[in-house]
């Protein structure tokens, strides 16, 4: 028998947490990238490895060019991170259940301690947002003092990716529960959204029609990337302009 | 025992079979050509095989020693280094998360296919020319799979946790994810390794028993243990035949499934260029293509370097395999074209981009070299019976085909990975220590083969003999024809 | 020379020698690994039983358990708040003869250096454990940590592995499907 | 010992899986050898495992954004914007986020050091000795022989030194920062003075505008107050007036600010004034009425031909500007850093008079003065720095104190600060990091990191309200460092006499309280308190003090259009073929190079990490036979640089650009690189090495007023890019022309 929550999963509005990104006001300033790195204990990899496509950014800002000088245009900056797909292509291919769908939070989890490093998930991610710990990247003392105790420090051979700051979700839920209430919209947000000087990133519950993120997402003209693959991504982009 | 060569054989044959003068010419011709029509006494063949195993020149040991060093350094030392440093010492990156290791895996599994193909399919279809070299081919299966296994494990970021891929009860209450093609892969490769090892072992038993009877010292103990007390009674033969029959039929689907499943690692992914329905047969045929090339190379080397092998392995065998290679090359070309066509007409912009990248990108030379090596050269050479009967020519063609098939896998894995739906991340892949590890697996393969050539009879004598017994020359009017009697 | 060595090794005495050498190396390696997994000694063989017998609640010294992820080890000031009123702590002679356990505490407080406790109940760093949620769900400390009225230095009555956690989570969730989903979700503990 | 046994059993059981956990878990070393050191006295408000948050002020640049730092068990873990602070309203830039990599940088100066100049190592001295050395330096030299060179932050230390200087007669402290040099602040305030009769830092209300014309102002990167201006930009786009605003950038190179513009006008460098005035003229014509004198003399056709912008485009722009209800023109950045910079600033500011937006939403204001400030104070222009360096070279100074800046790196090399330093007998640096200047000092008496410090920072611009951002230590000092203010106060006590009288404080905190106590009586504050202790506590808690009312002044625009404005083109120094545009790296700025995560942030426009590049138009590159990553020699009249090429599609073919921020020879392992022999070498290059000494009328450096030559070297140096050169530029896809 099909359970009710499974029926819900197959619809477009399956997600729980979602994001809206306004590319029109994203200035590409990299504040989100830095905030994400600081919040999530992401390694820096140095010049050689970063130039070889091994940077560990969980969020990257893409920009392309249109036209030729002098009519050249920079396309709107596009912050690209894990889209927390409702039907993620990374999940079924992991042989160890290290990347798995959280039924409770409707997120794509990456369970670091279960990962054996086949890197199949990264291959199969159409958004190419997964980063692999190619080495034990050195963070000399006293840099580790800055580590966020709520986030596991990853070592070599493990895949990682944006978690929608799941540690903040849990913290907010824990706090709300201890006060006997639900988590309020805007009570907490992800590190990238919190830092963004232009407030181009909005995070919240997409299954709550009253939340800011839902209202923004339903403004119209929003785009979900590579939706045609049936991945049911939970990040909506507005190109604007 | 004295040395043995073809001329000597023919002299003996002449004296042993005095026949009518008018037929002499035809028969002479047939005998020279066909092992099955050129029988020797059983004891003599046994001695020849035993001699080939025990006659070891210093050159053998020199090569063996060199390979041992290469295996120790390139395989084990470098692997240890890679484990302690992380996969950063390889050339993988985003988006080429997979690199040479999976190329090697696919390559070695491909190599391993020829063994089963020759010994199982040809056995089932009673292709008589197979008889002297089924063992040589089966060894390739087992040893090739060992290398494939090594390559898969090298590929893992945390290889020390490989056992999480195995389904076993544990306190975490977690099982492997059976949705993942990699889980299927593991099961398929394990099944194939086990069954091919069994299938290698079964027909080996009579030969081991033979070797047991003909050897002394540690070899005696060794063969005695392995021969499982085989005495050659009628009951034992019946059981053996039955078992082999079952295995021969059962291993064929396993063989097809293994490479199909390997192809699903790619085909099941949502990537441009990979998500193709034809990858299964395409990979199977590709595997046979490279596998047959490898068999031919092994046979040429065995014939050229081991004692008494010129009797067992003759140009007729190269000719027969050459024909097979030609057909498989055509089949491969068909599948390649089919895959390319359908993908191109599919019209997906990323797939088109990828196909264009294959031929016009920085790795474009590989694409053209692949087509030349896999299609043009085999077709140009193997149609000629004379050329395909010449061992060194077929050896070179086999080498070229393997090179081409290696390129094919290289194009499918890292080159295709360079292109995806996020152009911002496109990047090339340049292998680093993987090359050494690849050389290490190759060296280990040869090392195992050389070691095996000293320990187990490379020629299944009893099968050859069985064939020789079944064959005879008959004369119908003026024509001399070969007749084969049913054995079972 | 080498041949002679081999010959010697082949005779029974040689084989025994090889065996002993191998065993010695193996034991050395095993011992080394074992040693690397040993915890350092506790600064004080802290008598939990004595404290619990006086009616001290767990949360008095480990209040973090009710408030957040970490139960915490009490600050020295907290120990001293009680102990400075206890005669046997202050009387150095008494402490010397009858209550040697108190000496390190007095020394630490007077020299103002921290006592370095060795944690007993630990989960790996890839497990995000939150005491508060467990206490709020009505779990008693002894369900996981055992009965402190019976031990001096705390010890784990069970291995804190995933099976232990999941067993309890499943039991607690029972028929409540939503709770079961939440309590068996990988992301509840691993991120 | 039964308990011991069972414990061992546990270990053995666990050991099956965890025998070598350090290797196997993959998630950090899991050693069993763990000790926990509890607090001896639990600090108030601290709970085990729960974070404590402290409000403070970001010191990565001088803008004065408020931070709230998350700390756990005495370690600073994450910085967030202070949502209360009116300047940044809870937001931060990338540098603010990475400030923790400064705090926990492995290459900080850990102890007070005495060294032979240029020598990387030195002898550790005690703080008592250090204080005595400072005291002696103050006491044993004539007041006019003592100089202070200070950075733009923190303000409280500047105030302390200024007070000391005021009452003891030593030279007034000189403040400088490379960011200000590239912002051309002196030019802006001079232009304001010329047009409005009052010097001050203009504030541009981008958020309230409908059409924004920016002439070289890179306000989304580092200009003035990037976080606040970015918020303004978001306001422009999201339409505070319910309509998406339009943004046009005039610049020879597409900066990341220009990348966000709806239209990018790659005008010929030096013609900004001409173009601004031409647009003014065309717009005035559209508006009708008499032609203002300011625009009367300009010929739009001439402007079109000289600038390379078509006349129709100028007309279209003028129409856009004239017809908008909220037009705003901003001068800044490279446009002002030219020989005619002042004229450009005046011409662009004058455009605002057409829109008549002075003092209106979406218009031009004077920035609100900070609460404890009476008049606008700006940093030294490079011209003033030139005089300062000359005085040093002439041996006028016996002792030089350096705090908060790195002049050897930040000043143009042609000023030769390093050589001038040789004529100063005693150089005392208060650097937190071992930068180039600290290396050339006799003493380094390290100040705390900003997050370990007390202090305040005046918000110079960016907020409508007057803001004084407060700083407090969020963690206790990690190393044996000491607050410079404390060192100076203690030294002044030791030096006794007028010095002790000038700084009659026990410590830095008392000084701070004396400085903020006047605010208690000010009306309209975010909070108020009757006694200084409560007030200071609130000051810490909220991260400063600010007024609730708008403190911006309205410029007197009466005369703006009635002055004749110069439309002269800029003059360019040097015989080179290419205009040279140095720009500040938006992610590194002047002091970010030692923070590893800032190095790893891709540049917003080129996505290059960890190095310096030169941007060259692909057409020019082809003419010169250059490909990506080819190293070229760039020669100006002042210097030579070798730098790899980035073929940048959005730059004029006659212009090249190099980011400022790299090129350190010291400043820690991440700011420098190692050669194959393990020797410390430069990471990237510093474009100020190419800058000559040419100034505009306001005394700002004409940093964008040089012409340079390019020569191919034949060498290659691979630039690390985040972007795919194949995917973004189609290079290597088999599709090249």
Topology:
The complex is a heterotetramer of chains A (241), B (488), C (191) and D (737).
Chain A: H1 4-9, E1 17-22, H2 31-39, H3 46-51, E2 60-62, E3 65-66, E4 73-74, E5 78-80, H4 90-93, E6 99-102, E7 107-110, H5 120-124, E8 131-132, E9 159-160, H6 166-178, H7 191-195, E10 201-205, H8 212-217, E11 235-238
Parallel strand pairs in A: 1-11
Antiparallel strand pairs in A: 1-10, 2-5, 3-4, 6-7, 8-9
Chain B: H1 6-16, H2 21-33, H3 42-54, H4 58-85, H5 100-124, H6 134-155, H7 181-201, H8 204-214, H9 217-227, H10 234-267, H11 279-305, H12 309-312, H13 315-346, H14 349-360, H15 364-382, H16 385-388, H17 391-417, H18 433-455, H19 461-470, E1 471-476, E2 479-484
Antiparallel strand pairs in B: 1-2
Helix pairs in contact in B: 4-18, 5-6, 5-10, 5-11, 5-17, 6-7, 6-18, 7-10, 8-9, 10-11, 11-13, 11-17, 13-15, 14-15, 15-17
Chain D: H1 2-18, H2 21-24, E1 52-57, E2 66-72, E3 75-81, H3 94-97, H4 99-103, E4 113-114, E5 123-124, H5 127-139, E6 146-150, H6 155-168, E7 174-175, H7 178-183, H8 185-196, E8 202-204, E9 211-215, H9 226-238, E10 246-250, H10 256-259, E11 263-265, H11 272-287, H12 293-296, H13 300-307, H14 311-323, E12 327-331, H15 341-355, E13 364-366, H16 382-393, E14 399-403, H17 407-410, H18 417-421, E15 426-429, H19 436-439, E16 443-444, E17 455-458, E18 467-471, H20 484-495, H21 498-502, H22 508-516, H23 532-542, E19 544-546, E20 578-584, H24 596-600, E21 608-609, E22 614-616, H25 618-623, E23 630-635, E24 640-647, E25 655-660, E26 672-674, E27 680-682, E28 706-716, E29 720-721, H26 725-729
Parallel strand pairs in D: 6-7, 6-14, 9-10, 9-12, 10-11, 14-15, 15-16, 20-25, 22-24
Antiparallel strand pairs in D: 1-2, 2-3, 4-5, 4-16, 8-13, 17-18, 18-19, 20-28, 21-29, 22-25, 23-24, 23-28, 26-27
